[in-house]
C-alpha cells in the first residue's frame, strides 16, 4: 500500500499562485509516476498533470499548460505542483495519485492510490 497526503490548498484571488504538495509513504518503491487530478462541483474528476518518477518527464492537461509546473523529489517521496496565474475555473478539490505504470497517465484508471484531496478556491 501507498499512502498519499496532500497539503497546500486554500483560497487565492484570480491571478495568484498556490503550491500543492503530496507526500507518499509505504511501498513507495512501487511508484512509477505520480499525478494530480481535480474535481470541480458538479463535474467529473479531470487530469491536471503527471510526472514520471525516474525521469522527471512532466505531462500537462492543455488547460493548465504554461501555468502549472509539476515537480518531484524522489529523496523525500514528494510531488508538488506550482500553480500560477490561477483562474476561477481552477477552483476544485485537487487529488494526488500514484501509479505503478508509465503510460496513459492522463487516465484515472492508471492510478493505484489516491490522496484525500485538498480544496483550491480561486476568487474572481
What report would you give on this structure?
The chain is 0% helix and 52% strand. It is mainly β and 124 residues long. The strands form two sheets. Strands 2, 4, 5, 6, 9, 10 and 11 form a seven-stranded mixed sheet that branches. A four-stranded antiparallel sheet has the order 1-3-8-7, with no helix packed on it. It is globular, with a radius of gyration of 13 Å. The model has no long low-confidence stretch (mean pLDDT 96).
Which features does this protein show?
124 residues; mainly beta; 11 strands
Brief sketch in words of this structure:
It contains no helices and eleven strands.
Instruction: Give the biggest beta sheet.
Output: 7 strands, mixed
Sequence of secondary-structure elements? EEEEEEEEEEE
Structural class: mainly beta
Amino- and carboxy-terminal Cα gap: 40 Å
The level of helicity is under 10%
Mean pLDDT over the full residue set: 96
Tell me the radius of gyration: 13 Å
Number of strands: 11
Low-pLDDT segments, ≥5 res: none
As a percent range, the share of strand residues is over 45%
List the helices and strands and how they pair.
Blueprint: E1 2-7, E2 10-13, E3 18-26, E4 33-39, E5 46-52, E6 58-60, E7 68-73, E8 78-83, E9 92-99, E10 113-114, E11 118-123
Amino acid at each position: 500500500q501507498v499512502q498519499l497526503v496532500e497539503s497546500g490548498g486554500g483560497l487565492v484571488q484570480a491571478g495568484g499562485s498556490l503550491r500543492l504538495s503530496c507526500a507518499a509513504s509505504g511501498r513507495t518503491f512501487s511508484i512509477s509516476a505520480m499525478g494530480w487530478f481535480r474535481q470541480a462541483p458538479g463535474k467529473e474528476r479531470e487530469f491536471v498533470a503527471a510526472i514520471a518518477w525516474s525521469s522527471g518527464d512532466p505531462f500537462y492537461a492543455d488547460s493548465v499548460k504554461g501555468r502549472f509546473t509539476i515537480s518531484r523529489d524522489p529523496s523525500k517521496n514528494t510531488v508538488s505542483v506550482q500553480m500560477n496565474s490561477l483562474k476561477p475555473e481552477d477552483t476544485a478539490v485537487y487529488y494526488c495519485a500514484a501509479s505503478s505504470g508509465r503510460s496513459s497517465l492522463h487516465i484515472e484508471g492508471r492510478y493505484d492510490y489516491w490522496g484525500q484531496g485538498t480544496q483550491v478556491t480561486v476568487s474572481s
